[in-house]
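call fold(seq) -> tokens
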Amino acid sequence: MAKYIGPKCRLSRREGVDLQLKSRARSLDSKCKASVPPGQFGDRKSRATDYSVQLRMKQLIKRYYGILEKQFHNYYKKADSRKGSSGENLICLLESRLDNVVYRLGFALTRAEARQLVNHKSVTVNGRVVNIPSYLVAIDDEIGIKEKSKKQDRIANAIDVAGRAIIPEWLLVDNKKMTGVFKRYPDASEFPPEFKVHLVVELYSK
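ret:
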């Protein structure tokens, strides 16, 4: 599967916000300024059309969760087929991805590292090893670190850093046992403030 291997700072600068692609142990501004667009003429601003604004929002959310275009479109179609707001359903689906949940629980410093943990069979769901990062976690599922992987320094380091951060209210974590529970889907009020999901719905509704 294709993936972006360029500078992560460039993606955050392109979208103008911290996409949380860098380790949470270091702030983005310690490496670069998200408010400064990339490129030699990054300070030049062209007139934004409705389409460009909608496209940028889609790119922002897609890059925030680290997924590619086809997969993102499939998530939207699944979200649109469900009852309720398509935009809110979309974010709930993305938040329930196993790699994202592992990151949110504080078992990894970045979503990319969380994805690697899942790929390397270090993560369990309800006691069963799952090595598919896109696996959708259900309400009340228990996510844990496999016993043999609990001694990994990078996991211990991530938990130490996460201990100083705020764990989302829709998750319950036990750092000593290295387990967590997906209690519920997040409410729209709990989405990242920069997300304007209605723009993505408008883009795909054309």
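Residues 8-94+192-204 form a domain with the Ribosomal Protein S4 Delta 41; Chain A, domain 1 fold (CATH 1.10.1050.10).
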